[in-house]
């Protein structure tokens, strides 16, 4: 066996040995996903942060929520504090590196929002301070860490601790956790936020609609319509338009009465210069 294969097999063996104990810890992700889906669907926000490789994973998680994991759905509010480079450098310069996340938490955090912090060691002082700041604001502080006990786990309200001494394996399973968590969020989202035709699997948000009844839709939420499909309108019936609202025209199509300033047209129909 070559040295390169020995290195690969050694790494895979460490990852494989961590999977069963990780699975026990990761059972909480379903509940976290349900809570996060309710929060984000009601206008709440999740703040995420980490250092180094964990910073990249925090950004990745936020991107899955603002963008999408698999199927299209409404964008969800998630901010990766470690991606705010100007804030990071300004706060670090003025207040010290230990405050780079805590000050942002105080700026963006709101009661009952979620603060999710990633650290393989659980000993990053800036994350511990962020967790304390979040709890002071009444946020739910969740941690993804390596083996416990560690200071970040103690500072958070809940923690998923990967029971493995290898920080590389811990980080890899944190990425798995991020994907699984986002998958649960999608599964538990209320119907108006999910893809067209999607039915939520969450007992808390699933609604029973009597046969022949129209589904209940929250005020201001429009139904999801597949791209390119126009609503069916009875023959001869024009759509109702609110008073004073003009129809939307394709980009680049001018309206003589709206887009051209009165008084700039000569009798001959040619525009004058300013």
UniProtKB/TrEMBL annotation:
Pfam families: SIS_2 (PF13580)
Signal peptide: none
InterPro entries: GmhA/DiaA, SIS_dom, SIS_dom_sf, SIS_GmhA/DiaA_subfam
Chain intervals for the UniProt region annotation (Disordered): 210-274
SIS domain residues: 36-195
Domain of life: Bacteria
PANTHER family (alphabetical): DNAA INITIATOR-ASSOCIATING PROTEIN DIAA (PTHR30390:SF6), SEDOHEPTULOSE 7-PHOSPHATE ISOMERASE / DNAA INITIATOR-ASSOCIATING FACTOR FOR REPLICATION INITIATION (PTHR30390)
Protein name, as recorded: SIS domain-containing protein
Lineage: Bacteria, Bacillati, Actinomycetota, Actinomycetes, Micromonosporales
């Amino acid at each position: 066996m070559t040295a390169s294969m020995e290195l690969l097999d050694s790494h895979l063996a460490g990852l494989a040995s961590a999977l069963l104990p990780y699975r026990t810890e990761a059972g909480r992700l379903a509940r976290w996903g349900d809570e996060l889906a309710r929060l984000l669907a009601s206008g709440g926000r999740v703040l995420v942060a980490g250092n180094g490789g964990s910073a990249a994973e925090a950004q990745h998680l936020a991107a899955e929520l603002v963008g999408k994991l698999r199927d299209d759905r409404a964008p969800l509010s998630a901010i990766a504090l470690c991606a705010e480079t100007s804030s990071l450098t300004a706060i670090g310069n003025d207040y010290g590196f230990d405050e780079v996340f805590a000050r942002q938490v105080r700026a963006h955090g709101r009661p009952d929002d979620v603060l999710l912090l990633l650290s393989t060691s659980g000993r990053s002082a800036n994350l511990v301070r962020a967790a304390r700041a979040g709890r002071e604001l009444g946020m739910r502080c969740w941690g993804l860490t390596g083996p416990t006990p560690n200071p970040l786990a103690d500072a958070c309200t809940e923690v998923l601790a990967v029971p493995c001494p290898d920080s590389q394996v811990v980080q890899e399973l944190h990425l798995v956790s991020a994907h699984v968590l986002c998958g649960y969020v999608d599964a538990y989202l209320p119907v108006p936020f999910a893809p067209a035709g999607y039915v939520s699997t969450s007992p808390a948000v699933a609604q029973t609609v009597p046969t022949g009844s129209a589904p209940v839709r929250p005020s201001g939420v429009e139904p999801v319509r597949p791209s390119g499909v126009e609503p069916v309108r009875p023959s001869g019936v024009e759509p109702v338009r609110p008073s004073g609202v003009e129809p939307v025209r394709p980009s680049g199509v001018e309206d003589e009465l709206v887009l051209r300033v009165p008084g700039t047209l000569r009798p001959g129909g040619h525009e004058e210069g300013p």
